[in-house]
Amino acid sequence: METEKREKLKDHIKKKIEGLKENIKSYQTLTQPIPPDNAIGRLTRMEAISSKSINEAVLNKAKQTLSKMELVLTMINDPDFGLCRECEEPIPFARLMIVPESDLCVQCAEAKGG
User: Fold this and answer.
1) How far is CA 31 from the centre of its chain?
2) Do 35 and 56 belong to one domain?
3) Which of 18, 26, 27, 78 stands 20 to 30 A from 4 (CA)?
4) Domain limits at 40?
């Protein structure tokens, strides 16, 4: 991968990491326990609990993505970064910009069903 593209991707990943960290803070606020003494109606309380569960799932997904992005950032200077792990052909730069953690080219990903 060209140095210019590598630097552009690195900056893109850093921005994604910053955004994910901000989102995680927001989700952590939204997943706080709902106090039992909270004077809300039964239905509203059930909605709040359901919303909390959804936010917890989103929080976990954001944490997983953050972990992947941080790992990719450590590997970006490796000589084989950006090469498909199956066919060893270069992964298109546009794909890496969309899914930086991708280690498969489109053809190999489709062949694997993902």
Assistant:
1) 19
2) yes
3) 18
4) 3-78
